[in-house]
Amino acid sequence: MDKKKIEASHLKFMRMAVKCADNNIRTGNGGPFGAAIVKNGEVIACTPNSVTATNDPTAHAEVNAIREACKKLKTPDLEGCVMYTSCEPCPMCTSAIYWARINVVYYGNTKTDAEWAGFGDTFVSEELGKPLDQRSVLFKRLGASDAIRSFEEWISLSDAEKSEVKNGTL
Ligand code: ZN
């Protein structure tokens, strides 16, 4: 494919994500955000933000798309997938993208645009840059000697057992 054709196909998927965001406003289901996940040119998921509709503060468009794509592909690993999102992902969604091993993210609006529209997430990024004891949410260590047992049990497993757990085949 030549460069123009490649660009047009990316834009086609971005427009799907944006349409999803637009529809969301019209249906009153949630904020103006949409995200699509594509693998080998095939749309696996295209979802809007559904925070208010589902009373789920983590139901951002990108997280919803990751959940749907993983469910459809029956894997937590989206390596080889591309995300098209109507807005530059927030810190939570950015983390989810890394955990899902998505390789490429195309975004429409920037964080500055989101800030302008009243959906800023700069406060989260700023918090993440601070040491735990300087954040506005109280983080306190507790029950460390109990909690470490989960890791002790995990590291006592053989490599074969660990991969069975990771592959969901145990
Ligand atoms: Zn997000």
Name its key features.
170 residues, alpha+beta, 4-stranded mixed sheet, 8 helices, 51% helix, globular, binds zinc ion
- Physical arrangement of strands within the biggest beta sheet: 2-1-3-4
Multimeric status of the protein: single chain
Ligands (ions, cofactors included):
zinc ion
Shape: globular
Low-confidence stretches: none
Helix fraction, binned, reads 40-55%
- Report how far the terminal alpha carbons are from each other: 43 Å
Count of beta strands: 4
Mean pLDDT: 94
Brief description of this entry?
The protein has 170 residues and is α+β, with helices and mostly antiparallel strands. It has helices spanning 3-27, 51-54, 61-73, 91-100, 111-116, 122-128, 144-156, 159-167, and strands at residues 34-39, 42-48, 81-87, 104-109.
Structure report:
The structure is a single chain. This protein is globular. Helix 3 packs parallel to helix 4. The chain is an alpha+beta fold and 170 residues long. It starts with a helix and ends with a helix. A hairpin with a 2-residue loop joins strand 1 (34-39) and strand 2. It contains eight helices and four strands, in the order αββααβαβαααα. Bound molecules: zinc ion.
